[in-house]
Amino acid sequence: MAGKKEVDIRFSKFGTVSFTAITKINDFIDYLEQGKVMATRCKDCGAVFFPPRADCYKCLDSNMDWIEVSGTGRLVTYSKLEYAPIGFGDDLPYAIAVLDYGDYKVFGRIAGSVPEEEIRIGMEMTTVVNQLPNGQMNYVFQKA
Ligand SMILES: [Zn+2]
What we know:
Blueprint: H1 2-33, E1 38-42, E2 48-49, E3 64-68, E4 73-81, E5 94-100, E6 105-110, E7 124-131, E8 137-143
Parallel strand pairs: 6-8
Antiparallel strand pairs: 1-2, 1-3, 4-5, 4-7, 5-6, 7-8
The protein binds zinc ion.
């Protein structure tokens, strides 16, 4: 009986952590629905996280602000995919890329509307919310 109680306590601790994580993810989706791609910034040290994190690994604290990924980032690198993970095959070909916003970097996908021959390392791009044909949302990089 004592052993069973111990297991129950552990489980409720795990659930609390999971609930917090899900809440943060839901906020990100709420912002996407408002047309905003958001990162988090630590109120204590100013570190910016994308994808957004609930906890700062530097301060070991959870004192975060949501900030919008706005303005332009510089294309650091990209890779055109000819093969994709299961579920992404219909999107091929597409390019994954990293934009450098100075304080942080954003990993994502270059919009299919950007011609491949116009993609240049160092070009300025913006991160925008994108509606997918199946009703889901993501974000993509467009030419600035
Ligand atoms: Zn911090």
